[in-house]
Specification:
Elements (H helix, E strand, L loop, with lengths): L11 H9 L5 E5 L5 H10 L2 E6 L2 H9 L3 E4 L14 E7 L8 H11 E9 L4 H10 L23 H11 L1 E9 L5 E3 L5 H6 L2 E8 L1
Parallel strand pairs: 1-2, 1-4, 2-3, 4-5
Antiparallel strand pairs: 5-8, 6-7, 6-8
């Protein structure tokens, strides 16, 4: 694969995800946007980078970088992939926008030996205070959406996600809570502190 070297620098959360991925591995990025992460992995880690992106604009941007990306939906287009087709499957800031997050998680750990999932944590103290004192739906740091155009349809907290992983019997290989200053806290089971202080959560999962 020939990938254009003219790629954007990684956002802090994407840099954390890239550090979790071993060189020369097979990676599927679901909801890959403009392909920034995939292009970085291909250029810096010699990764076999593939992606799925819902928007045509995102697909076009990825193709322009020389990436192997198809247009597709995480809710409907993952079932055809064989088990263990990839070393890593990445779902970055996309889980909350899926219609069936439980089914999507189960599929991720089936088609990938490890799944890396990140999402905005609605249990953060700022979002709690926003609802308590302002009486308005809190918007996580870094998001520019309002309540009426936010793509997230299944909002969750860090603890909600941990509960779902336990219900599905998924193994948490690594869990990180990240605040707006990019300070990282290791997530432990039932961690109220991480739930309060982490504005984003990043998990590496595998089958239990």
């Amino acid at each position: 694969m020939i990938v254009s070297p003219n790629v954007k620098p990684l956002r802090p959360d994407l840099k954390i995800i890239s550090d979790m991925i071993e060189p020369n591995s097979r990676v599927l990025d679901i909801g890959c946007g403009d392909g920034t992460l995939l292009a970085y992995l291909a250029n810096q880690k010699n990764v076999d980078s593939r992606g799925i992106e819902l928007s045509q604009e995102g697909v076009n941007a990825c193709v322009a970088l020389g990436l192997s990306v198809i247009q597709g939906d995480a809710d409907t287009d993952l079932a055809e992939y064989p088990s263990d087709a990839f070393d890593y499957v990445v779902l970055g800031q996309t889980l909350q926008a899926t219609r069936n997050p439980k089914d999507v998680l189960e599929t991720l750990v089936r088609i990938g030996r490890q799944a890396i999932v990140s999402f905005a944590n609605y249990g953060h103290w700022r979002t709690r205070l926003s609802l308590l004192f302002r009486g308005r739906l809190p918007i996580p740091a870094g998001e520019h959406f309002g309540w009426h155009d936010n793509p997230d349809i299944h909002l969750c907290t860090l603890l909600d996600f941990l509960d779902l992983c336990e219900e599905l019997g998924l193994k948490i290989d690594r869990g990180l809570a990240v605040n707006r200053h990019n300070r990282i806290r290791i997530i432990k089971t039932g961690s109220q502190t991480a739930n309060l202080n982490g504005e984003q959560a990043i998990f590496m999962l595998s089958r239990g």
